[in-house]
Each structure stands twice: as structure tokens, then as C-alpha cells.
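Look over both lines:
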Amino acid sequence: MNPTRKIPRPPFGAHRAPAARPTVTPLRRRPVAAAVPIRPPVPSDALLDAVRLRLAESGAPPSAPEVAAAVRATSPSLDGDSVLDAVRAVRSELVGAGPLEELLRAPEVTDVLVNGPEEIWVDRGAGLRRETSVRFPDPEAVRHLAHRLATVAGRRLDDARPWVDGRLPDGTRLHAVLPPIAAGCTHISLRISRPQPFTLAELVEARAVPRAGAELLRAIVRARLSYLVSGGTGAGKTTFLAALLGLVGRGERIVIAEDSAELRPDHPHVVRLQSRPPNQEGAGELTLRDLVRQALRMRPDRVVVGEVRGAEVLDLLAALNTGHEGGCGTVHANAAADVPARLEALGSMAGMGRLALHSQLQSALDLVVHLVRDPRTGRRRVAEVHTLDRSTGGITVTSPAVTFGSDDSVACGPGWDRLLRLCNARGVPITWGSR
């Protein structure tokens, strides 16, 4: 049934003369269709070009009032509701994420992946599911969106550098790859950042951290122990690290070095440094290693490396060995026991010998906190806390101090006594747990 059709009504006052009422044939009731999310219509190329031209001629920014004025001037026949729909659609194409805009605004969505014009996958907290209600007109539209998002993120994306890793103004992490690196079509990966960082209490409520584990983590932060958060891709390392940094004393200064600004801890004194790729002439690059060196000159109380994945591991270990207690970062690893080997591989890429790196590692790092993600349910949680020890050959090995089960159980391991000694030495006793 056409929702705009109106059923004829008797004139005002007809109730006083029943005989004069017109006969109205009852309409058959039709089944009501299920509610479908309302999405802004895709604007025509002519409307987009006209709005772009008017904004360019006037020099006005693509704000909602300016776009609305341009739409009214371009299409004066549109009514009020149509103008609002057109403004939302045009702005999503000019400065937003186009067809993906509504998905990015949904509070339950954590990831949006585009593999092609009609192949879009969404993670709403329970694993990836294919999205059938959103599509692009053609592969060129996907490439155009990737270029626009890269420009908004202040990054370069072209045939000479066919990939980009950046951060959008709203905190969404962007990664895109152009053909021929990506076979067939441009690939876009968007990871939505929560406007407000998770607190440790919220992670406990979400069963990402057991309540007993939260008490232990607070003690680790208060004791200014140095640690790395390890885990696979999508395990929640950045979210978890931001929650721990929110526990740092309000009188301390946190300096963060990252490739893309992802860490946003709830703390009043945070300095964030972001690396920069080279320009078209190959100059102007600022690496993560450069940022770590600069961070050490900024009077930090806590030095944080968003993700250790290159030669910056040397500068981080050097910083933690020169009195900068409580430093931390994240690293990709399949298990906490694999972290020393992972750091050894990164150090060898920077030309540091095996024994030299392990010697630095043993005196710089205190703990490894490992996170896992259940592939069936999508649940992310803290799995174990390891301490670091020296083997007979001088190689660093980890020892499990605490293991957290998927049922929130807690078990202490061989490294528990060392963890107690580390905290007690800093004046932060731990009152629970036993061997």
C-alpha cells in the first residue's frame, strides 16, 4: 500500500447529518512488512557534481548548512524531507564513508570490510557476517572512497604507494589496498573506535577480565612494572592497553608513540606522537623509532609504544633500561611464551645480536599479558600473565604467573612468586593467590 495515499474523509460537520456521509469501501488489510533500516538514498552524479561546483565556487566548507543551501539551489523542487535526505546522502559522499556511513554509525559494529562492490562484511561483536543491504555501484566507486578516506586521514594513496594505514578524525582506523596489490578490486578495512575508552570496570562487566584479575592488573600498574600486551590480530590489545593506562596516576605524564593514533586512554596528561610516511619525493619520513627517541626527551613518566613491530624495539628496551619504569606497548604473538622469540626476530632486523637483545630484555621487561579471542563467539579476554626468567644459556624465557580460564577461573603458576616479589619490591603487596 502506498504510504502517501490518503483515505477520503467526510467534511467537517458531516457527523450531524448521517445521511449525507459518503460511503467508504473498507480497504483490505495487507500484511505489514518488517521494518527496514532507513538509509540515505544514493545521490545522482549530476547532483553531486552540481553541489561540488557550487561549494568550490563559493569556497565554503562542506558543512550541513552549506550543503543544504547548495542542494536547494540545485534542486528547488525538492520538499523539506527530500532536502534532508539529499543533504545526508551528499555529505556522506563528500566527506563521509558513502554507502558505509550508516554501518559505521551503528553502535554494535566494530569492523567493516569491503572486498568488492557487493561483497561487504561486518562484525557486530560475534564474528564477521556478510552485509546484503549495502553495495557500491562499481569497483571504481570503492577506489574513489578509499582515496577520499585516505585524504581525510592525511595519508597518501596512489599507484606509487598502493596501500594506506591511517586514522580518521572520528577515531576509525583505516586500511586500504589498491589493485594490482589487491586482486580484482580495492580492499577497505575499517575498525571503529569507541568514542570513550573502556575502563577496567567495563572490561570486567564484559567478562574480558575476571574480577580477581582486575585487582592484580591494578597492582601491576601501581607498582610501575614494565609489560607488553601480546595477542593476535583483533584480540583487543589496544583497547586493553588503553584501559590499563587509564589507571595510571593523574600526576604522571604519558608519552605515546604510534604509527596511527589509536590509543586514547582516559587520562588528563597524555602526549601522542604519530609517525609519518615519506612524501612523493621519498623525503620527510618519520619512523616509530624516531618517535621513541623524541619521547625520551619529553620528560615522560610512562613511555608507551602502540605496537612494537620493528627496529623501535631497541629504543624501547634501551629506554626501559635507563630508569623509565612502567613503560609498555603491544606486540603480535600467538602466545605469551612466544614473545621473547618475536622480539628476538625484530631485534635481528635492526642488527642487534641475539645474546645482547636477550640481556637487554631481561633487565627491561617484567611481564607479558596475553589476550585471546574466541573465534566462535568473538569474545576477547585476558588469558595469562607471564614473568620473564633467564634460561641456562642466557636466553629469556617466560613463566606463567597467572592463567585465567574461559569460565573466569584463576590459577597461579610457577611465575607467581616472582610476580609477588616484583610488586612487593615496589611497595605494592598483592593479597590474593597462592602457589
